[in-house]
Amino acid sequence: MLIIAILLIKSLFIMIKRIGILTSGGDAPGMNAAIRSIVLAASHFDIEVIGFYHGYNGLIDDNCKPLTLRDVSSIIQLGGTILKSARCPQMLQPQGLKQATTTLLKNKIDALIVIGGDGSFKGLLSLQDHWHGQVIGIPGTIDNDLDGTDYTIGFSTAINTALDAIDKIRDTADAFERVFLIELMGRHSGHITFNVGIACAAEQVISFENFSPDNAKETLEKLAADIHAAKKQHHHSYIIVVAENLWQGGITKLADDLTTISGIDCTACVLGYIQRGGSPDAKDRILATKMGVAAVQGLLDGKDGFMVCEQNNSISYLPLTLTIKHTKTVSESLVRAQDNILALTAKQNF
Ligand code: F6P
Predict the structure, then answer these.
(1) What is 134-202 written as a DSSP string?
(2) Distance in Å, CA 187 to ligand 1 centroid
(3) What is the pTM of this model?
(4) What percent of the chain shows pLDDT beyond 90?
């Protein structure tokens, strides 16, 4: 009885009538599923949702519109974001933050939910110094690099899309017995590269976790020796997946360097933005839906300055300050398994 009374009193104090939402930074498959889930959950609690367009620019320019159940009725399967997205450096400047605050006050927003990555959460934290509404972040980025959550929305779809593309490239690589170097996204982290590399049985995975620019020459020599060994053993194809922003001069330069040192033609292929688009897979739709509901529930429970996260299949909340402190590292066991076991054994068993 007492607990129910306390909860009732608490909920009387947390009066949220209007939630603002925006999607920020690189779009990720599943962002729309999260928007839908927020609107559904908010509607359940009689809360209005205002969508701001083009990331934080929507706050700066007061570009927004109420989101109804009808607006989100057929968006769960759509990639990209119906609210559009952008990077917004102005959110780190006092003038931008002031304008954003004015818009939030003008539109009588009680709480703001931002779906994005670490850059977006830095903006949210800066906003807290100027505006006193509640804020919550939902991790939406294909990079999966946010500390504190096992998965970010969009990662699963991105790795499946990349896998599908590389399986196709493998056909050509086999047919022509050719060496391919394939560049994957991830900014400065190797979650996509390592997971995709392992799933497509790449002969080599090169990412920030197992490469240092100081050893660039040794890496080239080792790769060249390994390609020759594979050729001797009549490997049909040889695929190297490489993280973007890793090799000075990019993947085309790496392919050229490897061609020169090995004397064997190496073809570069940048998968690029294909990894960011497309319909979200079931895993991302479900994760986004769970996180959208949890964001609204968290706000009603008084959470402020938190990111919704999923750890060991259970939804929880982590202070935003902790999520941006470190970049989430790639599982060491994954890196070791690829480098010490898979890359070597696949060759021996051929
Ligand atoms: O954060 C998602 C991401 O696609 C990264 O993997 C990539 O490095 C970056 O965004 C590219 O950003 P932009 O589209 O702004 O160039």
Answers:
(1) EEEEEEB-TT--BTT-S--BTHHHHHHHHHHHHHHHHHHHHHHT-EEEEEE--TT--HHHHHHHHHTT-
(2) 6
(3) 0.94
(4) 89
